[in-house]
Specification:
This protein is an alpha/beta fold and 548 residues long. The protein contains 20 helices and 20 strands.
Amino acid sequence: MTNSRTGGRILVDQLIAQGCDRIFTVPGESFLAVLDALHDSPEIDVVVCRQEGGVGFMACADGAMTNRPGIAFVTRGPGATNASIGVHVAMQDSQPMILFIGDVDRGTKDREAFQEIDFQAMFSPIAKWAAKIDDAARIPEYVARAYATAMNGRPGPVVLALPEDMLLDMVEAMDRPKVETSSLGLDPHKAARLAELLQSARAPVAIVGGAGWDKATGAAFDSFATAWGIPVVSAFRRQDAMPNESEAWAGNLGYGPNPRLVARVKAADVLLVVGARLGEATTDGYTLITPDHPGQTLIHVHPDPEELNRSYRADVAICSGMVDFANLLANLASPPQPRTDATEAHADYLAWSTPAPRDIRMDLGPCVATMREKLPADTIICNGAGNYSGWWHRYWRYAGQPSQLAPTAGAMGYGVPAATAAALRHPDRMVVALAGDGCFLMNGQELATAVAHGANMLVLVIDNSTYGTIRMHQEREYPGRISATRLQNPDFAALGRAYGCWAETIEETAQFAPALDRAMAQSGVRLLHIKTDIEVITAGTTISALRK
């Protein structure tokens, strides 16, 4: 199409051409021309949020589920700064996302006009690419490049600033076709070396994570690991890379991992790392696996050549996306008899992920076990940052892609927006938002968005009246000297009902199962306010133990 159109119309037409079916936004006067074009574009569902932080998180989560960029629109200045947290999460989590920012008009730039910011300077350190579109005729070029940049290599966020007057220009522009992910050819010599190392390994371990996983790649890796008898471990908050019911699944790394699993990783002579960057949380501050990993052979598979040998010395570096690598594994001849390592590691995982009741009033371990019994196996669990999430990381068994939306960047406030995006993307599946009391009040206003858009989801607010993770660190470093971590909370059930949710408060373990049954009998957004004791600071320790 080359007929004369406004910049706003051209932009929306490019999103449609790229297959975009949903955007997340808080409206702003700086991109009214885009909003006007969306009025005549029923192909795109416009999700109106209540704060730009929620916009960014929803777009990031949507990109994680679709493997195509989640799309966010915000206004300049305050809108962009609020949305920046979503860009940071998308970057650290390797998730495709495009943030469009309405900008000041071209004639007033560099005067510190109303809400003016140099967005290229602001976002370049935390995005794959940040640019400004000054010529409406080039919008198709910029949008196509944004999609390609966001999806290829290591996926991540792109930020495009849109001068207000540029969106009003009437120009002719040539539309660009839909951009797909580029496929990388695999070096056959490295594939042969991979097979050789795995065959001769004494105690191999696979670590999976990063972006680009889907049901097919997870299933392919499951088949490979089971056939070879290789234990599979997930990077931090990437537990849905493949189904946890797999006989090769060994559990997850991150905060509070199974000590037997940690010992197994330390004892491994060959590490097959697929998709994961081996970040700080996964490697316990780069100590569980050191950048030079003496005594261990590292086979590192990653879609971005710049990530290979960046922090970790790779003995074999394979630049590949997850789909291509899964195809390689499918054609790899398996040994006549699998090793017993995977079976042993999976047994350790099952024991570790089975909660033992404790003599406390509200015990979250049995609550997670109850959820496993009553909710569908493919439930999508969404959480932000906080110690409360550790119970689900340990005891929930993820069913495969996509069933875990959790920021590796450790951002609070992610759970409710991500669950809203998940409920809209997968209306046929059960979606659960997990939030601590501190986490919830950072983006709890997006309950209004969920209710307004007819989302069907369960929200669990875990309330210990404390910034729990910080209190944990505080007690470890300065025992008994509590400072700035106590919280005075509202009645979260009453707050949920004010938003139009069904809600209840529970304070004892025995109350959870019947409350969950009542919640599941409802439709729409349901909220359970769960009051816990700060003494039980994590799934594995207490305040008293920390003070000792």
